[in-house]
């Protein structure tokens, strides 16, 4: 009888041990769970834009203008990064720069302008021959249609001359406000703000505006600066975006305006690591123009190589 009574006791103990094991497994799961919960907020926080400050309009104007002054000292040689000799070449090059780099345009336009130096020449061109020249720039069929179309418009409506008014420029095929302001500011000396992807990214990072529509960005930023500064401001912001304040990995640790930037820390803050992210002349590399201004070369800038030169 006593042996029969002890047998169930062992069974009960075994059952108890079996029930303990799942508890340990459950505890292990519970310990692992917080690690998953901690990782999720980190990703969300990193993607959030900087929190809006209570900065007054007056303080914003002062900070924005100081940033521009600082960038003017960093890029005293800033200029349009498209090679051109006249307004016609600039408007064509700017149209071609859509969805590609200025470097690729600068490597392509020498052959284009050698064969079609005037609006009259390009207006009468064989589209298939132009397409072959423009192929390296991408979307070459659409771009061929635009540059031949705008050349015809220049010949038929403006006597073969590029107009110097915004309202006339935007009527040309392929020419929007951004292209028009590039031409007005750099070929005619008439102030304009060029709202490209770099400009949009940086002015939002700096909390100059939270607008996303290019026309509204143009209006908001124009209100912060004297009109006479608009063209140079555009160069400074775009150059900074291309060299230091990149979209994915801004080189925060090598940035000259960190005390003024509310987004400091979004990118690499270690100075040595940040310096490795610098591009063009700031990183010791060639620029985008095959024929850059002398001031750029004097500052240590290097010309870009021609197409096919490696």
Characterise the protein shown here:
The protein is mainly α and 310 residues long. It has a domain at 87-187: Hypothetical protein, domain 2 (Endonuclease III, domain 1, Orthogonal Bundle). It is 57% helix and 0% strand. It contains 14 helices and no strands. The longest helix is centred in the first third of the chain and has 46 residues, at 2-47. It is globular and about 55 Å long.
Sheet-strand content, in percent, reads under 5%
Question: Any idea what the radius of gyration is?
Answer: 29 Å
The CATH superfamily of the domain at 87-187 bears the name Hypothetical protein, domain 2
User: What name does CATH use for the topology of the domain at 87-187?
Assistant: Endonuclease III, domain 1
Percentage of residues assigned to helices? 55-70%
Give structural attributes.
14 helices; Endonuclease III, domain 1; 57% helix; 310 residues; globular; mainly alpha
Give a short summary of the structure.
The chain has helices spanning 2-47, 57-74, 87-96, 102-115, 119-123, 127-134, 140-158, 166-169, 177-187, 197-205, 214-222, 230-243, 271-275, 294-298. It has 310 residues and is mainly alpha-helical.
């Amino acid at each position: 009888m006593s042996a029969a009574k002890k047998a169930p006791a062992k069974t009960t103990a075994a059952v108890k041990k079996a029930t303990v094991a799942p508890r340990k497994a459950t505890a292990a799961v519970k310990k692992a769970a917080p690690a998953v919960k901690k990782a999720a907020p980190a990703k969300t926080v990193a993607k959030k834009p900087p929190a809006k400050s209570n900065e007054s309009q007056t303080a914003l104007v002062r900070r924005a203008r100081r940033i521009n002054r600082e960038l003017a000292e960093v890029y005293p040689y800033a200029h349009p990064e498209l090679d051109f000799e006249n307004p016609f070449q600039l408007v064509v090059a700017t149209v071609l720069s859509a969805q590609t780099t200025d470097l690729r345009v600068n490597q392509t336009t020498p052959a284009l302008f050698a064969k079609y130096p005037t609006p009259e020449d390009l207006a009468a061109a064989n589209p298939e021959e132009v397409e072959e020249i423009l192929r390296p720039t991408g979307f070459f069929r659409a771009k061929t249609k635009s540059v031949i179309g705008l050349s015809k418009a220049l010949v038929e409506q403006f006597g073969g001359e590029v107009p110097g008014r915004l309202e006339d420029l935007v009527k040309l095929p392929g020419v929007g406000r951004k292209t028009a302001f590039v031409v007005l500011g750099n070929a005619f000396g008439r102030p304009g703000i060029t709202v490209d992807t770099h400009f949009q990214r940086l002015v939002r990072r700096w909390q100059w505006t939270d607008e996303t529509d290019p026309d509204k960005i143009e209006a908001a930023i124009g209100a912060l600066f004297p009109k006479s500064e608009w063209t140079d401001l555009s160069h400074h912001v775009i150059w900074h975006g291309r060299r230091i304040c990149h979209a994915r990995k801004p080189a925060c640790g090598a940035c000259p305006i960190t005390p003024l930037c509310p987004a400091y820390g979004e990118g690499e803050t270690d100075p040595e690591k940040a310096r490795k992210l610098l591009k063009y002349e700031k990183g010791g590399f060639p620029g985008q123009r095959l024929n850059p201004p002398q001031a750029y070369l004097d500052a240590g800038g290097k010309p870009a190589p021609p197409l096919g030169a490696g």
